[in-house]
Amino acid sequence: MAGGHLTIDLNAVRANWHALDAMSAASVPTAAVVKADGYGLSSARVASVLAEAGASWFFVAVAEEGPAVRSVVPKDAKVCIFGGHMAGDADLLRDHNLTPMLNSVEQIDRHLAELPGHAFGIQLDTGMNRLGLEPADWDAVRARVLDLDPVLVMSHLACADEPDHPMNQMQLANFHAMTDGMSVPRSLAATGGTLMGPDFHFDLTRPGVGLYGGFPYENAEPVVRLDLPVIQTRTVDSGETVGYAAGWVAPGPSIIATVSSGYADGLIRAQSDKGMVFAGDVACPIVGRVSMDLIGVDVTHLETVPDALTILGPHQGVDGVADAAGTIGYEILTSLGQRYARTYIGG
Ligand SMILES: *Cc1c(COP(=O)(O)O)cnc(C)c1O
Q1: 55 with 162, same domain?
Q2: Which domain holds residue 45?
Q3: Residue 138 Cα to ligand 1 middle (Å)
Q4: Judging by beta carbons within 10 Å of its beta carbon (0-12, 13-18, 19+), is residue 112 exposed, middle or buried?
Q5: 52-110, pLDDT tens digit by residue?
Q6: Dist. CA 65 → ligand 1 center (Å)
Q7: Position 57 in a domain
Q8: Inter-axis angle of helices 166-179 and 135-146, nearest 10
Q9: Which pairs count as long-range contacts for 250-254, CB under 8 Å and 24+ apart, including other chains?
Q10: Which residue, by CA, sits nearest to atom 11 of ligand 1?
């Protein structure tokens, strides 16, 4: 088999969820954010493991992602939709018992008209300016909405991966101002907010990336390993070039491994000439352009070239690859290609 091999450790996902859960008080449940197909790792696999571990709140981005999660969690678990209730969602929300986090007065009106009595939550904007009701909208509808017992009132932090950023305290103050005195459960923290401590925990935490081993949860157990087969090896002379656009010029006689995986598999092209892969413990640089299906790797310094090189593993996680590619671990995870053979450990 010439394709890459992705190994996903569900035991590590479970351990990360338990560790994040332990950071908040026992009375504060910890949800699991499984949007984008569980950050690319399979929302159904992750949700089923975490439901067994005790999670009872799950979040996805859009209603279409809900049924895959609903089908693997207990009936009384909540499957919530960050994007709220969009036109055309009513059947999905009802048939699969999904809970929209309503983001605007328009969504509130739609929800109450189309699915009266169906559970919902409210998302407030405390400064990120992405999703949620602004303070003036909230003031206008708050009394009417609270009468209907929303399951949650939530907001999202823009800068929680930088604990000292002034936005965090500003959004915290705004959230208090918009929600203090209510009896509805409140939630503000994703992974970064969970790490920032109890002031940010309120009644529910909502980690995503930390479950999957990504920054800002630096003590996370690694979840993914990605091994890429070497298809062939060649020697090149000083001055010969490797790859498209003749992008890399051999500085001396070199041994180049051609490795299976490219930008079509989510190897971000910006890591051309920057990224690293590993032969066991030894780093080997990616040389030349990342192609659609292949990369070139300089293995001149290896005594023997292994059958496969490791791009995600003990020496380099999703954030290491992200640094080389000029992006974030989230994008590395959600880009992991459908062509890789996948093995799930544990669960
Ligand atoms: C994605 C997301 C989360 C999870 O964020 P992480 O940084 O991955 O922990 C939580 N809440 C909202 C609203 C989100 O969009």
Answers
A1: yes
A2: 10-212
A3: 22
A4: middle
A5: 999 999 999 999 999 999 999 999 999 999 999 999 999 999 999 999 999 999 999 99
A6: 15
A7: yes
A8: 40
A9: 253/300, 254/298, 254/300
A10: 190
